Structures
1.
Amino acid sequence: MIENENKKENCSVFFSGGIDSVSTLVSVIDKKPLLITIWGTDVWDYNTEGWSSLKKLAEEYSEKLNLKNLFIKTNFRKFIYEHVLTEKLLKGVIDDSWWRGIQHGIGLLGHVAPYAYKYNITTHYIPATLNVKSQKGTTCGSCPEIDETVKYADCKIVHEGYDKTRIEKAAHIVRYFKDKGQAMKLRVCYMDKGDKLNCCECEKCFLSMMEILSEKVNLKDWGFDVDEKTLKNIPKFLKKHSNPSPINKEIWADIVEKFKQDEKYWKKQKAVKWVLKYNPYKK
Ligand SMILES: [Zn+2]
């Protein structure tokens, strides 16, 4: 490890605008982290509209929270053939893709190294996707055991948020901004289509909406431009298109459980009362 001569301690955090990312930002906000947003990971490099909306969102956060941004453009998902590596190296070893099983955590962290030296960053936070419970039995390549062994330029890595489920992260976010009298838009969608923050038509959007809605807020304020009809029709969509993975099953179970904590209130919410009885595996 290289000792950096300038001892002023700065920190940074990956920022993508999603629930994991914003929850980590809220957790470390007192340390005034530098927001690092990477173009070429969730948003592909050809999606200039998508990038400009993500960039704008990152700038809105830094402006509201009095932080600074760092934007990095990368081709790290393109200079290797992910599918070939998945086929040739991982088949029969782990049931996962090169991106999810091997590359994404360490690959993303590599981008921070030169800036850690340049800006004297002594701690970089990578938001956890999974948690202690949901990581079990998965082969996701981003976890504390791997990410936190990465060290460079006097900088250590913290895999942040591993102790929280997504529903807990959603509450953590909403309550923090509510206390400040604010609401912040989120960008949770993987569809990477155009300049929309969220397509509001996929399972990832739907489950994120319900996580945020469980805090009894107006979804439009949080980046989800949906009406009552769309909310009502979610079970119909999920019946055909849901991904009944153990992780999604757990996420939905957490949502249902949270809604049940105030059954009386949610029974009156016509557009979403279906959540109280939702079972992702029931076809
Ligand atoms: Zn979506």
2.
Amino acid sequence: MFYGPVLSRRFGYSLGIDLVYLKVCVYDCVYCQLGSTTNKTVERKKYVDIDFKDFETELKKRIKNCSYLDYITFSGSGEPTLNSDIGKLIDIIKKNSDIPVLVLTSGGTLGFDGVVDDIKRADLIKVSLDAPDNRLLGKINRPCKEVSFNRNILGLKKLLDDFSGDIWLEIMILEGINDDLDSAYMFKHIIEDLGEGIKKIHLNTAIRYSGENYLKLPDRGRLEKIKDILGSKAQIIEKVIYKKYNRELVKIEEEIIELLKRRPVSINDIASSLSLNLNEVIKIIDKLLGEGEIKYSINENMKYYFKPKELKA
Ligand code: SF4
């Protein structure tokens, strides 16, 4: 359930908590780095059997062993708010630590009973909003039938009313799908209607592994234009600068490179071979690809990563 700490582009060092197994989600996003959704559901239940006393003990141990953490983050192998224990777990963290609690959610559960009440004790909530209407929600996020654009917006408005922390929105910009200027103006009106509670708007691009090979990165000029339309809260998410990469992460990175020297391996196989969380692996793979240390090939729609012999480790 705990993993990391991982270093991310936006949130620095965070201790991750994964509350669902791979891949329980309300969506099946075309850009999902975790592959296709195997359990598409709106059902909220425990999913992972958590003993609260053990959770508290492990939490204290993990915090003690980390020299520095920016956040304790609910994220992972699917939609964390589907786990009905999330509110209780946030309470346990708040009782034991001053480290800010971050929830990363698709936003597809916010319109369902109890979700806003459970996560409103966090400090920061990042909500995805990839579609400015129901048609694009279907095309990009491929949600459960119970989820609709209007329901998501009503849930987001409830979150804005009830939550006193910061809310950041993330829009995954996909070329030819939601990168047109009409969509940008629709996003602008929706976000203006949501009001001042939205503190930041992150324009992200699917730079990592994604399930659908037809996806392309939008060009930089178009991203800049969308940013200008959305105004001063909007920023384009740049690649992480790994200056603060710590010793523990370097060791994991070395282990992954060693594995990839031997044969091409999928992300899932890297995670299971080295007993790492998938998110942890994805972030390191992202970094190694960006640095040109590793490459990938595609076989039957699956990406296999390898360390080219001619490149130095
Ligand atoms: S919401 Fe997140 S985990 Fe769920 S399908 Fe989309 S990208 Fe994947």
